[in-house]
Amino acid sequence: MADLKCRPFLFPIAMKNITDLIEHLSSFMTEERATLFENILNKRTRHVTVVLEDLYQPHNASAVLRSCDCFGIQDIHAIENVNPFSVTKGISVGSRKWLTVKRYQEKEQNTLKCLNSLKEQGYKIIATTPHKDDCLINELDLTHKTALVFGTEDKGMSQTVIDNADGFVKIPMYGFTESFNISVAAALCLYEVRNQLIEQKIDWNLSQEEQADLKLEWMTKSIRASAKIIEKWNSNNVK
User: Fold this and answer.
1) Would you identify the CATH topology of the domain 48-199?
2) What is the DSSP string of 152-212?
3) Where are the domains of the chain?
């Protein structure tokens, strides 16, 4: 099969068979559930992604994931230089189940590995921290794919992020407090970015292949005994 694409949550399946498999799995779901998947996929984006550097409070990580899901941001990159990335189920409300979380947890240089990987994929690295060259979040140019980086709760952004950022944004503030809580800052930024994506008429939608991959993944997480169903379908249809 020349058109083979390996999916870690399934078996290797050729793209030409994905549509048939999705149709088969649809028979194990309610029509309302299938429609919900379609509606959400049409609003999902990878044009903007979120990077979380060394968060140590699970409730903050969970709240950010929940905001990403609510605003249609599919991919989250969790950098674990010191602190392991963990979530609190009650706060995330199962949002991680529907998101793609990539973790960077090697012994060293996780921040640089993450940023370099994103740059290779065409993302501009935008640090969410005040800087002499910053702009307000509502002024951010989203023409290019954008990775919004949020720093750890106590120390904020690392120097590695600042040195490798392509730009800086800040949220306007009018009080005595110097900064927002990380989860609040992420929610405010994503709300504004989502509005800007629509207003600037940017092509932010997932490709048909990306939508098919995600739909298939979500189906496997929603259907009981999905692995056995797919294995049987696979043996009868993939040669």
Assistant:
1) Alpha/beta knot (3.40.1280)
2) BTTTBS-HHHHHH-SEEEE----SS-----HHHHHHHHHHHHHHHHHHTT---BPPHHHHH
3) 48-199
